[in-house]
Recover the amino acids of this structure.
């Protein structure tokens, strides 16, 4: 069932003072095991982005969206949407005040009966450039049962040898978190190919921005907030009225890397405003048993060659789903 495996070796691991395990290949199961090695296994919970809350609403495409792609999502009919906001990492009780990356996963139910999933982060870059590097990133952070902590020397040596794996943490340290999931900007760090009716294809990355703007918290404000402030805020705000996000596709420019999610593209790249996501209700834990699939795409949107988007990522999600359904 999880027989799809990706050969390791494309990425040279030269680690001063740290003998990297010489893995021959990495699978979805390996990746979930590595996540569990850091965060533990928690019955019924996702191996990553374990803490989350769901919401629902509607997506309406703009008139120019079909110029970018013939996807059903960009048609005239609105799509119903289920969204799960989450905190990065596999700790289901992580405080919302943690400087962790936040996640947004959305499932669009299309008028033709199909679905499209969109998975995004509150940082413009991912923590590794391919699944093998994700695996090594996780393995060096495996918690030592004696100390309850990872070995700082292993982590430092890995970071020094793989500097691109420090970019996401650096971005999160430099950019304060927003005061609400509904005031957070989200980035689809993977590139996709958008193909229109004329068979013109361009590479782009999704971006979602709160219609009322990003509201950042300073350290003093963050220190005052409770462990579940994000979910409490979502419940409160959506009870008071709908909340909108504008949805864009940032277009790749000359020389932009469409395969490496650790590299952000210049802010100056043009964006196409493709629609508005209007959230109308908070839905508690109702999407806990859903699995969002980065490859659930309509005709007119295709995955790029980014290896963190292709097969092994979805097999990791399926492995995590199987484990959380078995251990309720
Ligand atoms: C090879 C790379 C990756 C691995 C191994 C991985 C692993 C996982 C796993 C195991 C889950 C839990 C899935 C479930 O139980 O439904 C998850 C969830 C998630 N991942 Fe990844 N991931 C990877 C790359 C990414 C990337 C590139 C992004 C950003 C676009 C991302 C964003 C998320 C988000 C937002 C969730 C939460 C989805 C939800 O709310 O259900 N991941 N990831």
């Amino acid at each position: 069932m999880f027989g799809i495996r990706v050969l390791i070796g494309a990425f040279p691991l030269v680690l001063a003072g740290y003998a990297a395990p010489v893995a021959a290949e990495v699978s979805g199961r390996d990746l979930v095991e590595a996540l569990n090695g850091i965060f533990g296994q928690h019955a019924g919970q996702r191996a990553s982005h374990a803490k989350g809350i769901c919401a629902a609403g509607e997506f309406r495409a703009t008139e120019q969206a079909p110029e970018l792609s013939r996807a059903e999502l960009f048609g005239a009919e609105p799509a119903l949407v289920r969204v799960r906001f989450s905190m990065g990492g596999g700790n289901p009780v992580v405080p919302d005040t943690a400087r962790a990356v936040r996640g947004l996963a959305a499932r669009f139910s299309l008028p033709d009966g199909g679905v499209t999933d969109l998975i995004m982060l509150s940082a413009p870059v991912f923590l590794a450039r391919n699944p093998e590097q994700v695996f090594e990133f996780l393995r060096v952070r495996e918690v030592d049962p004696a100390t309850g902590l990872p070995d700082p020397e292993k982590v430092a040596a890995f970071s020094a040898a793989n500097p691109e794996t420090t970019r996401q943490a650096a971005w999160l340290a430099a950019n304060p978190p927003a005061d609400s999931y509904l005031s957070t900007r989200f980035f689809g760090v993977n590139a996709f190919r958008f193909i229109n009716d004329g068979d013109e294809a361009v590479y782009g990355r999704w971006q979602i921005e709160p219609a009322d703007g990003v509201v950042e918290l300073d350290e003093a404000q963050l220190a005052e907030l409770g462990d579940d402030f994000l979910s409490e805020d979502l419940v409160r705000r959506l009870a008071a009225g709908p909340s909108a996000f504008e949805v864009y596709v940032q277009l790749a420019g000359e020389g932009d890397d469409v395969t490496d999610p650790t590299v952000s593209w210049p802010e100056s790249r043009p964006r196409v405003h493709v629609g508005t996501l209007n959230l109308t209700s908070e839905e508690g834990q109702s999407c806990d048993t859903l699995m969002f699939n980065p490859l659930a795409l309509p005709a007119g949107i295709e995955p790029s060659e980014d290896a963190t988007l292709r097969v092994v990522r979805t097999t990791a999600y399926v492995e995590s789903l199987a484990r959380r359904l078995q251990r309720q």
User: Anything to note?
Assistant: The radius of gyration is 19 Å. The chain has eight helices and twelve strands. Residues 23 and 216 are 41 Å apart (CA to CA).
